[in-house]
Amino acid sequence: MSRSAAPARVSLAGFGAVGTELARRLAAGVPGLELSAVAARDHAKARATLDALGIDVPVVTIAELEPRSDIVVECAPAALLREIVEPVVRAGKEVVVLSAGVLLAAPDLVELAERHGGRILVPTGALLGLDAVAAAAESRIASVRMTTHKPTRGLVGAPHLGGDDLSAVEQPTRVFAGDARGAAEGFPANLNVAAALALAARGAPSVDVEIWADPTVTRNTHTIEVSSDVADFTMTIRNVPSENPKTGRITALSVLSLLRKRYAPLSVGS
After folding, report:
1. Strand order across the beta sheet in which 220-228 lies
2. What value does the CA radius of gyration of the chain take, rounded to a whole number of Å?
3. pTM: predicted TM-score of the whole model, two decimal places
4. Residue 189: which of 62, 57, 100, 268 has the closest Cα?
5. What is the CATH number of domain 8-126+250-263?
6. Which ranges of 117-179 would DSSP assign to H, the alpha helix?
7. Which residue out of 43, 149, 160, 222 is catalytically annotated?
8. Residues 198-228: pLDDT tens digits?
9. Architecture of the domain defined by 130-239
10. Active-site residue 160, yes or no?
11. Cα–Cα distance between 152 and 251 in angstroms, integer?
12. Distance CA 194, CA 200 (A)
């Protein structure tokens, strides 16, 4: 982007912990970017939060975002992903997707973006090393494994648990073992990191996932192990939860880093 060009308009589809942090950071000033609008389920609450932060942008419906945006950041419940993504990519624009689990079951959205010149960007989010995984996928990945330990309160309400009460869990307990798609479907508010890993590891035989409810940890902890013909590596990240225990604080900052690199004169990392 030319330095004389108008800033790219960034809107937020969702205004929970991630959306609020992004609004605050964007409003504080990021070269080449400006916050243009926010879509939220509770308009009055979103308006009050924006006013408290001193941010003067409109609160609109999801349907009103695309005309006000060059880039839309999806940070909403996974069930709203298609409603958010379709009009943006159909208009040939960019959308940053945090609910990456839905993409595993919706390849038509990627096809729609390709037909119309739009782009779907998946940030690293709460996981590290996706650039290394994607680089290994340019050759041949033999195996990928991800093990997640979460405080029990961060798993409450997951569909896979079927309402099971985790309050009595006193030691690390495995609550899921399967593939990345199953993890993302069973824990849609928790395991978008598994979907992002699977998308990065394209061509891998599978991405095996274990999820543990762990009362001994206070941070969302993910370990990935990759074996390939170019490198074997193991990485662990322990994320500090945001005010929403299902989401790490680093998630919003990962989106900000991705957006900043889109228009920065120097970009580090693939």
Report:
1. 173-179, 207-213, 141-150, 220-228, 232-239
2. 19
3. 0.86
4. 100
5. 3.40.50.720
6. 130-137
7. 222
8. 999 988 988 999 999 999 999 989 999 999 9
9. 2-Layer Sandwich (3.30)
10. no
11. 20
12. 10
